[in-house]
Amino acid sequence: MSSPVSGQSDSPARDPRHWDDVALQRALDRAGDGSWGPVAVLPSTGSTNADAMDQVREGAPEGFTVVADEQTQGRGRLDRTWASPYGAGIAMSVVLRPLVPDAVWGWIPLIAGIAVVDALAEQGVAAALKWPNDVVIDGDARDGSAGPRKLGGLLVERVGPAVVVGIGLNVDLTADELPVARATSTRLEGADVSREALVVDVLDHLRRRYLHWQLASGDARRSGTVEAYAERCVTLGRGVRALLPGGAVVEGEASTVDDDGRLVLRLADGSTRVVSAGDVEHLR
Ligand code: BT5
Description:
Blueprint: H1 21-31, E1 39-42, H2 48-57, E2 65-68, E3 89-96, H3 107-122, E4 128-130, E5 134-137, E6 149-159, E7 162-170, H4 195-215, H5 225-232, E8 239-243, E9 249-257, E10 263-266, E11 272-275, E12 279-282
Parallel strand pairs: 1-2
Antiparallel strand pairs: 2-3, 3-7, 4-5, 5-6, 6-7, 8-9, 8-12, 9-10, 10-11
Helix pairs in contact: 1-4, 3-4, 3-5
The structure holds biotinyl-5-AMP.
């Protein structure tokens, strides 16, 4: 009888950039209830947010998640695009069906940002938030221009009674794969992060933060969400330029985040201005 030749296998070599499905499933199983789920894992898709929104219309439950190895039409905010090259990052979308009044749903993107920063901390990455919810590493951009460096972004979209929380994170992207000088990846920041473990940690932190907030009836102050956000937000205390919807520009010092998650700016003339939407640039 011949024995198998050692060192050879019938299965093709594993593509190192493909999700390690077995590792991901094991990590989700280990997390048990904490993993929420069900989790659909796709090799490639247009946009995980678009997929999750379709699934909401089919009745997907709270916690239903789509994760992809690659997006070909990744979406950013305000019709911008999000680069998700194959096998190098995390593109995931989680369905939530909040029970609290929709007047406070504006906190959901900020809660998701807190959860992502905490999940990255578990992987040894010291990330922070740039208001409202860019996931960043504090410091200059890779070309020496003003930072911070963007590691990830969130796109939260409403579908009827549900919300889809889309999370994009750069993990193994090389410098060549990054779309802009202000982007970075955990690999370029010197961290060796398992994408599979990070997905599980993001789900776990998101579930806990969100449930805690819901148990406080969506009261961001009482649930400690305002404080948790402020602790992780590197925009506070900085000079910023806010580009408001409609094109107006305001400069001032970002002093606090109010109970509605809005950014409070102190202007040079001593007045305050509250910003609820728009893009913010940190000034040096
Ligand atoms: C965001 O938009 O930051 C939200 C990104 C959300 C992506 C996730 S992935 C899973 C889910 N499915 C989707 O289709 N989307 C979500 P915004 O703040 O508008 O930033 C977009 C801008 O960031 C672009 O205009 C580029 O300048 C830059 N950018 C694009 N791809 C990037 C990347 N991979 N890393 C860093 N910056 C990027």
